[in-house]
Every structure is written in structure tokens, then in C-alpha cells.
């Protein structure tokens, strides 16, 4: 069975989405919009919904509704509006403190009955750095070293209460067994944290750990910690290579490769016919604002291009990818795409407008299901990070027309069989490092 | 009209609460428990519910369910479970970053339709410091200086989007007026924050600012920033003196004293008769665990007493209150109480067990309403921070039996007349410092 995550980005992943008639101008920060989307995804039996994040105003607000809600807070609101679906939010190890973040995700896991997931990011943008007292983003390697220590601290905090700490003896006044609640006494390079957490261990033991960095540092990090990986892959061959590489790294790290689920992004541009899908793709591209796309391109690659050069090839940035301190893997993907296909800047902006480097598939529901089945059965994906270009319609159409095809082919669940996010992804509840017990089946 | 805030503390404010038959052993981190409480308070037309907080495991878990949920996350969950009532959470300026916290409270204000409030604390405990890389709590004065700069940064971030930023021109592709969204370019002693926030301005402009420190530094801080103040006052005379002092400080700071609401804490121990109330008070005290109370006393005052000395007077801590780096005002209140009334340590623990220094009133609904009316009409309170010893029953009884008396006397609302927390407290929506406009009536 493949896994489906609904990546919910304001009014849609395509940068033109807000200009379509269906799009609400203030929906990007309207909880009712997200409640609806989460319920639609749950109706479609998705494993999870997911929100990206960075602690800065990202993108050009003059040309797109980039204001938004803080996603860990939003997850708590969605927990009460849904019953089954997993709830994943991004949070940054560079600009948070582990004690604070561990508490919030533990709280979401309790509130949702075990449906919380954390997409661990190190945050590449300079704008974010400048909201936290820095002049520029910390070095790539430094960020990943901090991330690893951050996650280690969180894992210990989440285990700091053993599952069976409770005595609950009202008669004698003994509430808990103090020997089963532990300080963690962490002293490291980045953090000193005494513990214990002030939240008891959660239904999932700890939230599902998700990771989306595909650089060399990112893959190594994923191999050690991730239970699900979101990734941008443009071609089947690239997807297969990434899948094989990451699973090998997981095995090399001493973990079971089956317990790390790899979900490439897919931007489905749907039509009842091929012609209708192509027409929608054309309309999305027609409504792109070049000025916005050029700013995004500069943000992804550091390559500055003016409108005068839209119909020329992408200039050479002259940057060694390993020197990129921002999002290394996305830089390489974008520049490789432009060169491999000989795209002009305008053509490249069209390709990036929907998914910022994620694969766009334009076609009928059956055609999109074919692509997904091919990737799933040929070793490129355990599932997909579905990125509708328009929201809510793109998700509604996917749930109503693509999901039933996947279900009929026996590729996707027709009902939820477990109650936690880990259940949906087929992952066990982790043992507690302070009191190892057999993991639940 | 007086104002009522429901201070929701796990299974009740009294340290014995968990030993009563009604108390759920895991209710302290069960969102269903808090949903019920918030709905009961809303049925009682309370202005708000409120959660205390500190980023550490506070109190002795062996003798009390001190594990809990992170309150800003919990507020987001309660927003969807209620329609009218204000939602206030504590968060620390010492252990958070302003950009992160400003986003979360802005998100709660959006999600709740303008019902968010932030109780600003500087966090006195050493345990918290040790979860954030420090050996001990930063000095009292230092914490308040950081708090002031922290709040200034948040206020600017909350104003960084003017209310009328939206163009929404789908035809031309112009989404927003970039001139109405501002960087804040803050450079201070503690923080450098560029902005803008990535959340648009909220229904209330910014969340209600609440403060609960009653030290000299705390009062000065409240005078500058607070819109509501929670305070612990043991006698009417002390309450009147605090009320007069704080209102004078507000005026001296150039603000309208009517726009800062002062709410002393009250722990109502209710009975249908005086005898029944006294019996309940006795039962609460009987179930106290001396070992727990002594640890709490040490935590509040720094005075270490053993069980052997329970029936002696409180020993002299020999500490100058201005040298206390933790909770200065609570230290003074506890030691003054013990000396003024000549209490033994055991008697003092009994008095502190319900509200840790807040006033306990034992009696019938009419008797408790009399006390509240007296404080309200004689210049000691604009309302009350209601701290039920048992939850849910203590809140249910207050709503069912005390609130109707206050309503019949014309002291309390019988229906909500506004939609935001500021509406409930009779406070205007603040103007935006980047685009001053008349405050809403």
C-alpha cells in the first residue's frame, strides 16, 4: 500500500493560485479553510496533512498571499476538527529551543490521540536569520550539526517519562513513581538541558520524525533520524537513484530501510481529458507574474536574472553546490533541470511555478494514477507528497477522482485501520530508551 | 460589571485535588478535560480561561499530577471547542524568542476570531533555567529588562502589517500593497529582529496583554504594558493598596487607569451551607501531603523546613526581599502571612495548599458573592481570577451557584455582548503604530 500526504500550502502550491476565482483572498490565514482541507484529505483516507514553515515572511507579498498561520498552533486546531488523519508541521532546529519544541509536539500528540509529526528543518533563508539576531544564515554543516543534537535532546525529553510512571494511589497520596521520571542531564555543543519534560510520554511515544533535506548532509540526517522523507525528484531515474541511495544510507546507519518511508512531491494538474488538463496548466502558467518568479528563482539559486533576460538560457551562477549555505539540493535540482532540458528562464519559471522544483504531472486522473503506480512499483517511492496547485479544488478533485482509482488498483487503503500517524505509515511505536520494552507490533 | 477569569490548573488548584474521587488520574493532559472546563466557563459567561505555565516540571510529581500540556498549543485546540470565551496562556519572555512567540499568539488570535491573551511572565524557577543552558535563573532586574524589550518587539511585529494592506487585484496580479507591510528593524540590548511578521494583523490588533508579577519591577512592567493584571492579595486592605498603587502607576505611565483591569485571585471553597463548606475545606487540608507542601514552601520562599518542625513557627529566612531573584512578591506575601497571623508551618501549609498564596474564601454561594462584591465595590478589584480547588466540580458549582447571584445583583453579564476578548474586558482595539487610526469604540 502506498502512502499519501497532503501538503497544504495556503490557497495552492501554484504561485498563480490566488488569481483563480475560487481562491479566497484571506483564506491563507483562515482556520476554516484548513479545517475543510484536512477533512477532505481525511475523506480521501490520506495518511497525513502537512504544513511547511519558516520563521520569516517568505516570497513577495505584493504578488502572492504569503502571510500564513504558525503551523504547530494550526495542528492543534485541526486535531479537534478531524479524527484519523496524521498532522505534520515543520519547525526549525536553528531558531527554536529543544525544550520548547519538544513540549509543543508532545502536546499535539496528546491532543490528537497520537497523530503528530514533526518535519525537521534547519531553515535556509537569510530573512529568517535576521529575525533572530543574526546577519546571515548559519553555515549548512553547522545547521545540521545543531539539528542532530537538537533531535537527540528531544528524543530524550520525550522518553523522560516512562509509560508506566503512574501509581495513582489516592488513599496513600502517592501519585507517581519518581524513579520512572528522569532528568536527561544533556550537556552538548549546542545545548544543555536538564529535563525531565513536563509532559508525560505521548500516545506515539514521540511524534513521527519527518525530514525533507536532500543534500548530502540532509540525507545523512534522514538516515539517522527520519521515519518519513519528503523529497523533490524531477524524473523517475532521479527518483530511483535517490530512493536507493537513501535506503542504503538507512541500512548503513543500522536501521531497517522499510521503516523509513520516502515520499516524492507531485503537483497534479488534473483534467477530465488530457486537453482540459493542458488548458488548466496553460492558465496557471499564463497568470504567473514574471517579477515574482524571478525573485523566487534568485531565492532558490542565488542567480539574479532581470525581465530583459526572460527568453535567454539560465545564466551560470558559477557556484559550487557544496558552497551553497542555503538549500543545497534545491539549488542543484533547479540548475540541473534548466540545463538538461535547455530551458529559457521563462520556461524554467513556468516549470517552477507549480512546485518550486517538485514534479508537476498534468493529465487525467487515470494518467496521474499511472505515473504514481509506476514510481511506486519501480523503486522510486513508498508514497507521495501530494501538492495540489489549487486549494481546495485541487485536493477535492484528487480525492474524488484519483484516490478511487488507486483504491481500485489495490494500491491505497479504503479505510483507516489504525489510530495513530505511525499506524498509518506502518511504523512501530518506539521503545523508551530509559525503560526499553518491546515495540508494539 | 465585574470581570471573571477561570484559572484552569490541571484537576484543581488545591494540591489535594487529585485525591478526590472525581479527579481523573490523567485528566491533567487530557484535552477533553479542558474542553469541558472551557465550555463550562463559557456557559457561565466568563470573560476568559487562563493557563499558567513554566518550561520545567514544577512541583513534586510523586505527590501531584504536575505533568501538563503546553498552553499556547492547548489554546488553539480550545478555540474550536468554544465560541465566545477569551483564551489566555502564559509564556515566558526569558526562554522564548519574540518572533516565534509573536507568531503563535497572532495565530491563536486569528484561529479564535480575536480571543487570544498572553500572560507575560519572566519565569522565576531554577529548574527552567537549567532546561535552557543556564545554571541558575537570570537576575530579577535582568529578566524584566529583557521582558520589556521582548514585548516591544512583539508589539511592532503585530503591527507590521497594516489592516488595509490587501489589494487583491486578481486581474492585474497585485495581491498586496507592499508599502503597508513593514520591516521593524529592531536593534536592542537583547534582540535584533528585522521583521515583518509572517502573519497578518489579527482581529484584536494584538492579543490582550496580561501580567501577574506584583514585585516593584512587576508593577512597573504592568503599568507600561498590561491590559489585565492577575494578583495574589490576602486581605481587603492589601487588595485596596495594590489596586490604588497599580492604577496610580498606570496613570503615571501616561495610560488610562480604566484600561487596565485588576483581578485578584480567589479560591472559592463552596458548600450549600457554611458547615458543608467548612467540611470540604477540612477534607482538602486533611489530604495534603506534608512532604509536598514543604517542597512548595521551599520553592516559594527558599526557606527549608523539615517535617520535625511542622508545629513550630516559620523560621526566619533572613533574606532581604529585594535580593530574591525568583518570585519576589510571592516570597513577601507568604512570609508576611505567616508572621501576621502567627501561623505554625503546618497551618501555613494548609493556607497555601489551595492557592499558593492566593486568597481562599470558604462559604456558601451568597457568602462568596458577598466577598466578591465587597472587593469590587470598595476599590480592590475590577474582577476576579477564579481558582477552583477542584476541577471540574469547583468550576461547575461556581457557574451554577455563584454566577447567578452576581448576575441577579447586576454585577455580571448575562450574555456576551462582543466577540473578542478585548470586547469582554471593555478594552479598545489598539491603533497600529505604523498607521495610526482611531481605535474602535
UniProtKB/TrEMBL annotation, chains A, B:
GO molecular function annotations of the record: oxidoreductase activity
Domain Luciferase-like positions: 26-380
Organism field: Phytohabitans maris
Cited NCBIfam families: FMN_nitrolo (TIGR03860)
Keyword Cell wall biogenesis/degradation tagged: no
Broadest EC class assigned to this enzyme: oxidoreductase
Protein name: LLM class flavin-dependent oxidoreductase
Pfam families membership: Bac_luciferase
Keywords: Flavoprotein, FMN, Monooxygenase, Oxidoreductase
Similarity comment text for this entry: Belongs to the NtaA/SnaA/DszA monooxygenase family.
EC number(s) given by UniProt: 1.-.-.-
Amino acid at each position: 500500500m502506498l502512502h499519501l500526504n497532503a501538503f497544504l500550502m495556503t490557497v495552492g502550491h501554484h504561485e498563480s493560485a490566488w488569481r483563480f476565482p475560487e481562491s479566497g483572498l484571506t483564506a491563507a490565514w483562515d482556520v476554516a479553510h484548513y479545517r475543510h482541507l484536512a477533512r477532505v484529505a481525511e475523506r480521501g483516507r490520506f495518511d497525513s496533512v502537512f504544513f511547511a514553515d519558516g520563521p520569516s515572511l517568505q516570497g513577495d507579498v505584493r504578488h502572492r498571499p504569503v502571510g500564513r498561520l504558525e503551523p504547530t498552533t494550526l495542528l492543534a486546531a485541526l486535531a479537534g476538527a478531524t479524527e484519523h488523519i496524521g498532522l505534520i508541521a515543520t519547525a526549525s532546529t536553528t531558531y527554536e529551543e529543544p525544550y520548547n519544541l519538544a513540549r509543543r509536539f508532545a502536546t499535539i500528540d496528546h491532543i490528537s490521540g497520537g497523530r503528530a509529526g514533526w518535519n525537521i528543518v534547519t531553515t535556509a533563508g537569510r530573512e529568517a536569520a535576521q529575525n533572530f539576531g543574526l546577519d546571515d544564515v548559519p553555515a549548512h554543516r553547522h545547521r545540521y550539526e545543531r539539528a542532530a543534537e537538537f533531535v537527540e535532546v528531544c528524543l530524550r525529553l520525550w522518553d523522560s517519562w516512562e509509560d508506566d510512571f503512574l501509581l495513582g494511589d489516592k488513599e496513600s497520596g502517592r501519585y507517581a513513581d519518581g524513579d520512572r521520571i528522569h532528568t536527561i542531564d544533556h550537556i552538548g555543543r549546542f545545548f544543555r538541558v536538564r529535563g525531565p519534560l513536563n509532559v508525560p510520554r505521548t500516545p506515539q511515544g514521540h511524534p513521527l520524525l519527518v525530514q525533507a533535506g536532500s543534500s548530502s548532509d540532509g540525507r545523512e540526517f534522514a538516515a539517522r533520524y527520519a521515519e518519513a522523507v519528503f523529497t523533490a525528484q524531477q524524473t523517475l531515474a532521479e527518483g530511483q537513484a535517490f530512493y536507493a541511495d537513501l535506503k542504503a544510507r538507512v541500512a548503513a546507519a543500522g536501521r531497517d530501510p522499510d521503516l523509513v518511508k520516502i515520499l516524492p512531491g507531485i503537483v497534479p494538474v488534473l483534467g477530465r481529458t488530457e486537453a482540459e488538463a493542458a488548458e488548466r496548466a496553460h492558465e496557471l502558467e499564463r497568470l504567473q507574474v514574471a517579477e515574482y518568479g524571478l525573485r523566487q528563482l534568485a531565492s532558490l539559486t542565488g542567480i539574479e536574472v532581470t525581465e530583459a533576460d526572460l527568453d535567454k538560457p539560465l545564466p551560470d551562477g558559477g557556484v559550487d553546490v557544496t558552497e551553497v549555505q542555503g538549500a543545497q539540493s534545491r539549488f542543484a535540482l533547479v540548475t540541473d533541470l534548466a540545463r538538461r532540458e535547455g530551458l529559457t528562464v521563462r520556461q524554467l519559471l513556468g516549470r517552477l511555478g507549480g512546485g518550486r522544483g517538485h514534479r508537476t504531472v498534468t493529465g487525467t486522473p487515470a494518467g496521474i494514477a499511472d505515473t504514481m503506480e509506476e514510481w511506486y512499483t519501480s523503486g522510486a517511492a513508498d508514497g507521495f507528497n501530494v501538492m495540489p496547485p489549487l486549494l481546495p479544488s485541487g485536493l477535492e478533485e484528487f480525492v474524488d477522482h484519483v484516490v478511487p482509482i488507486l483504491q481500485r488498483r489495490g494500491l491505497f487503503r479504503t479505510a483507516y485501520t489504525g489510530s495513530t500517524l505511525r499506524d498509518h505509515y506502518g511504523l512501530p511505536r518506539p521503545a523508551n530508551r530509559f525503560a526499553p520494552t518491546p515495540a508494539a507490533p
